[in-house]
């Protein structure tokens, strides 16, 4: 995970700069297509020297069609300057917005999946808030701290970043689901939660998920502290 984070930290700013520059240059090319064509030759010789003017007149006598030929207009130079400046700003902004290594790992785990225990209970929606408040001390230890150490350029000391993979809660009508950040013992947790809620242990359904992916499942939110 550390190698992946360092790779993303390196590539993401470059990719952002390229994408911004490409989009701006594409807009500049579309703008240039709407401009009138530019004549291949000016109406008069631009050089003040008589010899150059004679050669210019001689060329037009030999090839009079050059007076009417034109080429497509070029993209205005300011579009290229804007692409370079905004590309650099996009790269800097992406670097500043990059999360720390541990926060990056938490986000990736939510997308690709991590082992968890899912608790399900049928309870009225009006009672779910009070129930979660009562369960909070029992469920909070099932969160998982994530720590990542990684080197930074031009820095002799490694960067240490920490984050928490929290316990997640999903509420859909009378269906309440809780997902721990680590697999837990079913029997002990079921008994503790049932006693706290004053319900039969059989009302709680627990199962382990080898790859729990809350990012792709609607409705999951961190357990309130």
UniProtKB/TrEMBL annotation:
The chain crosses the membrane at residues 6-26, 79-98. Keywords: Membrane, Transmembrane, Transmembrane helix. The keyword Transmembrane helix applies. This is Transmembrane protein. It comes from Stenotrophomonas maltophilia (Pseudomonas maltophilia). The lineage of its organism: Bacteria, Pseudomonadati, Pseudomonadota, Gammaproteobacteria, Lysobacterales.
């Amino acid at each position: 995970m550390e190698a992946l984070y360092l790779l993303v930290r390196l590539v993401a700013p470059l990719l952002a700069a390229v994408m911004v520059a490409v989009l701006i240059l594409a807009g500049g090319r579309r703008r240039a297509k709407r401009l009138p064509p530019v004549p291949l030759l000016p109406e008069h010789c631009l050089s003040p020297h008589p010899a150059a003017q004679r050669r210019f007149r001689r060329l037009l006598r030999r090839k009079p069609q050059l007076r009417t030929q034109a080429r497509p207009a070029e993209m205005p130079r300011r579009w290229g300057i804007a692409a370079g400046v905004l590309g650099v700003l996009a790269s800097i902004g992406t670097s500043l917005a990059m999360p720390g290594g541990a926060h990056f790992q938490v986000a990736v785990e939510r997308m690709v999946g991590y082992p968890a225990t899912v608790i399900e209970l049928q309870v009225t929606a009006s009672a779910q808030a009070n129930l979660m408040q009562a369960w909070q001390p029992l469920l909070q230890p099932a969160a998982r701290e994530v720590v990542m150490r990684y080197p930074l350029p031009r820095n002799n000391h490694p960067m240490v970043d920490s984050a928490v993979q929290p316990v997640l809660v999903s509420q859909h009508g009378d269906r309440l689901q809780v997902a721990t950040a680590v697999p837990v013992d079913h029997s002990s947790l079921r008994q503790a939660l049932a006693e706290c809620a004053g319900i039969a242990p059989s009302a709680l359904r627990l199962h382990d998920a080898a790859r729990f992916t809350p990012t792709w499942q609607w409705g999951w939110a961190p357990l309130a502290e």
